[in-house]
C-alpha cells in the first residue's frame, strides 16, 4: 500500500442506472481535490475507451456540470459490455491497458459497474500487481439488480426500487379502474436475482401493489401460475395484478419467455440471454385460458433511467461510494471494491462505507433469502420491506428548466 | 337558466389520467361549499353507477382526503366505457337515469371525460331538457389525447405530455449509452390525434428527444420509415430513437400494428380497436431489415397514471375546471362543457375558463394542424413547442410517506 502520485482514470460499465453518474460526480469532485492526483480522466465507454486511447479530460469540465451529474441518469461517459479474456489465455488487452496507463502515468484506476465489471476490474488489478506496475485499483459498485456479493445493497437499486414501487402504486389505481375484470402482468428487470421485482412488494405494503409476485429465485410453473391468477380473480371481481421478473425460469431451467414460444433468444456479449416480451406472453396465456381482458406491461429501460424518481438516499450513497473509492486509493488501498454496510445500532438506518477484496465481488450473485419470501412463493415478508424501505427514502432530482430536467452537459474534451 | 336547489352527481368516465381526480376535487370542494347544492354524490363507475343506483356520499369524506385527490392518479370513483344508445332507439337507460335523479332530487349533473363521455353527457342533457326535468348539466373535459374540440387543451394532457417529454429525455441518454448502434422504437398513446406523441418533440427541443416522430395525422409508409431510420443510423453511428403513435395507419387506412401482422384486434365497447404491441413490431421490422440491435418500448398505462410527474399547471387547471363547472351550474348554466382559452395578451401564458355547448364537444376530434408538422412529416415545428411548453410547467405531487406517494383514501360510503 503506497501513496502514489499520478493521474486517475474512471470508467463506467454495464447497464446504466439513475445514479451511476452520481458515483462519477463523487469520483471526479474528490479526485480533482486530491493533491496526489495530477489529472482526472474519464474513459469513453469504459474499458473500450482505455483500449482505444479515448480519454476525456475531466479537469476541463465546468464544476457546476459535474454537480449536475448527480441528477443525470445513464452513463455520461458512455458504457460498454466487453469481456476481458483471462490474461493467461490472451494478454493483448492487458498489454494495451498497461501501455496506456504508462503513457499517462495513471496511478489510480476506478471502475464502476456490477458483477461483470468487477470481474474486469479484478483482472486488471491482478495483472498490474503481477507486472509490478504501481496503480491503486478500486471498484465502485453499481447495479439496479442489487445482486453484488458482500455489500448490503448496491447504488442504483434504491432509485430503481422507488421507480418500481411508485409506478406499481399508480398502475394499481389505473388497472383496477373499470367495473370489469382485467389481468395486468408487469415485467420487471433482474436476470437471476429478484431484488428489483421484489420492490413491487413495497407498493403492496401500501395496499396498492401487485397481487402476485414471481421471482427468479423460485422455479416458475405456468400451470400453478394460472391457478393462482384465477384465485385472485375470483376473490377480486376478476381483477388481478402480477409482477414478474424477466428472468423467471421453469423447474427445468428454461427461461419462461423461451418456454412460452420465443423462437430464438439473442445473447449479449457476456452470453446472457436478452430477455423481454415475457409480460405480453404471460398476459396472452391468461387471456387465452380464461377469456378475460389482459394487458402486458414492461417497465423496460424506464426503470433504470427514471432519474426524476430517484431516491435521495441512493443518490447520496452513490456519490459517497465514488468519493470513498478515491479516498481509499489515495490512502494506499488497492485491489478492493467499496461496499455498504447497514448500521442499525442507533435504531435507524445508517450506511457505513467499507472495502472488500474486488475478487470476491466479481461474478458472484447475491439472491433474496428464501425465508424472506412467503411460503406460497408469490409475496415478500416484512423482512424484505424492512430491508428495502430505507433505500428509497427522499426525493432528489435535476432542477427544472422549461418544466423539464436540466441534465449535465459535459464538454468531453479528449486528452491528446 | 334557473338557480336550482338539490343534489349533485359527479361521474368519471373513459380512460383515467393523472389529474382526473383533481377535477373531482374541484367539483366536490366547490359543490360542498355551495348552499343550493344539498348533497354531493359521486357515481361509482360513471354512468353505470347511476343506472345501478351506486352513489357515494361525498359529504361523508374527510376534507383532507378530498384535498389529496388533487395528487392521486386514475379515477377514484371508478370509470366506465359504456355507450348510451340514442333515446329514439332505446329509452330504457334514460328512463332509469331520470328515475334516479328524481329519487335523489338531483338538480346538478357533472360528467368528466373525453369525446365519448361528452357524447353521454350531451345525450343525458338533451333527454332531461326534452322531458322538462330541471337539472343543470355541465361537462368537465378530460383526456390525455388532447383531442377535444373547442378547448385550447384538455386537463390530463399537460401531465401526460410532461411524462412523455421527461421520459424521452431519460431514454435518450440510456438508449445511446453504448458504443454500438441500437434502434429504439417508443410507442405512445393517441388513437387518432398525435398530441401526446408530439410531446416527445419537447425532449427534442432540449436536444434529448427522438430522431423521428410518427403521428396518426399523416399516413405511415413502412418502406419510407425504413429509409428514414437508415438515414438517421448512418448519421449517428447506428443509433436512432423513434417515437410513434399507437394509432398510425397506412395510406389505405389500416392500423400499422394490424398491417404488420396482428391476427385480429380486440375492440372496446365503443368499437375502437385496442391498440398496442406496435413498438415491438416496428423494432422487429428494423432489426430484420438491417440486422441491428433493436428495442421496442411502450409507455403503456404509465403515461396516463404517472402522477408523480404531473404538471402543476395541469393539476391546477383540472381542479379549476371542476370548480368552474359547479359555479356555472349554480349560476343557471346547463347543456355546456367547460373549455380552456389561451390568453397571451400579457405576453405570457394564462388560462381562461369559458363554456361551450356540450353537443359541439361530443364526438368531434381535434388534430394537430399540418402546418405545425415539419415538411418531412417526422418532426414538430416551433409552433407546437410554443403551444405545449406552458402546459407542462411546474411540479406537483402527493406528499411522501415512507418514501412513497400518499394517495387519497376515500371511504366511499354508499347512499342508501
What does this protein look like?
2 copies of one chain form a homodimer. Chain A is an alpha/beta fold and 416 residues long. Mean pLDDT of chain A is 94; it is low at 262-268. Chain A folds into 2 domains: 6-155 and 307-364 and 394-405, Rossmann fold (3-Layer(aba) Sandwich); 161-304, Rossmann fold. Chain A has helices at residues 20-33, 47-51, 63-68, 92-103, 115-131, 157-175, 195-198, 200-205, 222-235, 256-259, 278-290, 302-305, 312-330, 358-361, 382-388, and strands at residues 6-12, 37-43, 55-57, 106-113, 136-141, 182-188, 212-214, 239-245, 294-298, 336-343, 350-357, 400-401, 404-405. In chain A, the strands form 3 sheets. A 7-stranded mixed β-sheet of chain A has the order 3-2-1-4-5-10-11, sandwiched between helices. Chain A has a 4-stranded parallel β-sheet with strand order 7-8-6-9, sandwiched between helices. Chain A has a two-stranded antiparallel sheet with strand order 12-13. In chain A, 36% of the residues lie in helices and 18% in strands.
Distance between the termini of chain A: 31 Å
Q: Low-confidence segments of chain A, ≥5 residues, pLDDT <50?
A: 262-268
What is the name of the CATH architecture of the largest domain in chain A? Answer: 3-Layer(aba) Sandwich
Major β-sheet strand ordering of chain A: 3-2-1-4-5-10-11
Rg over CA atoms of chain A: 22 Å
Per CATH, the class of the largest domain in chain A reads Alpha Beta
How many distinct beta strands of chain A? 13
Elements of chain A, N to C (H/E): EHEHEHHEHEHEHHEHEHHEHHEEHHEE
Q: Write down the overall geometry of chain A.
A: elongated
Instruction: Please work out how many helical segments of chain A DSSP would assign.
Output: 15
CATH topology of the largest domain in chain A: Rossmann fold
Structural class of chain A: alpha/beta
Q: Hey, roughly how much beta strand do the residues of chain A contain?
A: 15-25%
Largest sheet of chain A: 7 strands, mixed
- Total of domains of chain A: 2
Largest interface (CB within 8 Å) is between:
A-B, 62 and 61 residues
* Quaternary: homodimer
Amino acid at each position: 500500500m503506497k501513496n502514489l502520485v499520478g493521474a486517475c482514470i474512471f470508467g463506467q460499465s454495464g447497464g446504466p442506472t439513475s445514479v451511476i453518474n452520481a458515483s462519477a460526480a463523487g469520483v471526479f469532485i474528490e479526485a480533482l481535490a486530491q493533491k496526489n492526483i495530477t489529472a482526472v480522466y474519464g474513459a469513453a465507454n469504459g474499458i473500450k475507451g482505455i483500449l482505444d486511447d479515448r480519454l476525456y479530460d475531466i479537469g476541463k469540465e465546468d464544476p457546476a456540470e459535474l454537480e449536475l451529474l448527480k441528477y443525470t441518469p445513464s452513463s455520461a461517459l458512455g458504457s460498454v459490455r466487453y469481456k476481458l479474456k483471462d490474461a493467461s489465455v490472451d494478454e493483448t488487452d492487458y498489454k494495451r491497458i498497461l501501455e496506456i496507463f504508462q503513457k499517462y502515468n495513471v496511478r489510480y484506476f476506478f471502475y464502476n459497474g456490477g458483477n461483470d465489471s468487477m470481474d474486469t476490474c479484478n483482472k486488471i488489478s491482478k495483472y498490474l500487481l503481477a507486472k509490478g506496475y504501481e496503480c491503486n485499483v478500486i471498484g465502485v459498485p453499481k447495479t439496479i439488480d442489487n445482486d453484488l456479493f458482500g455489500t448490503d445493497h448496491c447504488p442504483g437499486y434504491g432509485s430503481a426500487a422507488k421507480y418500481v414501487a411508485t409506478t406499481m402504486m399508480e398502475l394499481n389505481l389505473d388497472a383496477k379502474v373499470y367495473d370489469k375484470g382485467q389481468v395486468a402482468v408487469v415485467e420487471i428487470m433482474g436476470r437471476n436475482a429478484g431484488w428489483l421485482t421484489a420492490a413491487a412488494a413495497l407498493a403492496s405494503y401500501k395496499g396498492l401493489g401487485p397481487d402476485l409476485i414471481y421471482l427468479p429465485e423460485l422455479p416458475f410453473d405456468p400451470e400453478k401460475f394460472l391457478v393462482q391468477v384465477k384465485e385472485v380473480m375470483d376473490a377480486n371481481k376478476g381483477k388481478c395484478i402480477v409482477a414478474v421478473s424477466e428472468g423467471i425460469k421453469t423447474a427445468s431451467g428454461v427461461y419462461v419467455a423461451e418456454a412460452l414460444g420465443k423462437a430464438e433468444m439473442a445473447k449479449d456479449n457476456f452470453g446472457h440471454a436478452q430477455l423481454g416480451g415475457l409480460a405480453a406472453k404471460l398476459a396472452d396465456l391468461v387471456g387465452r385460458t380464461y377469456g378475460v381482458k389482459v394487458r402486458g406491461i414492461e417497465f423496460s429501460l424506464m426503470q433504470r433511467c427514471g432519474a426524476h424518481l430517484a431516491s435521495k438516499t441512493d443518490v447520496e450513497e452513490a456519490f459517497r461510494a465514488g468519493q470513498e473509492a478515491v479516498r481509499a486509493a489515495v490512502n494506499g488501498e488497492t485491489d478492493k471494491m467499496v461496499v455498504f454496510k447497514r448500521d442499525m445500532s442507533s435504531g435507524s438506518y445508517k450506511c457505513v462505507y467499507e472495502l472488500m477484496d474486488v475478487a470476491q465481488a466479481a461474478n458472484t450473485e447475491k439472491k433474496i433469502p428464501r425465508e424472506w419470501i412467503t411460503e406460497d412463493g408469490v409475496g415478500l415478508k416484512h423482512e424484505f420491506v424492512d430491508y428495502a424501505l430505507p433505500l428509497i427514502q427522499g426525493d432528489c432530482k435535476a432542477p427544472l428548466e422549461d418544466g423539464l430536467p436540466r441534465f449535465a452537459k459535459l464538454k468531453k474534451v479528449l486528452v491528446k
